[in-house]
Amino acid sequence: MIGVALGILAVILVGPGSIWVGRWTILHRAPRPAVVLWQAGSVSALLSVVGAGLALSLGLFHNPDPSVAEIIVYSLILIFTVVVVGRLVWSLIIVVRTSGARRTRHRRAVDLLDQVGRRAELAGPPGLRVMNEPVPVAYCLPAVRHSRVVVSDGALRTLSRDEVAAVLAHEEAHVRARHDLVLDTFTALHRAFPIAVRSDVPLNEARLLVELLADDAARRRTGAVPLARALVAMAAAPVPRFAMGVSYGTVVRVSRLAEDVRPHRLLSAGIYLLALGLIALPVVIVGAPQILDWLGIVVNLGWF
Question: Residue 223: left if φ>0, alpha if ψ -120 to 50, beta else—which one?
Answer without folding.
Answer: left
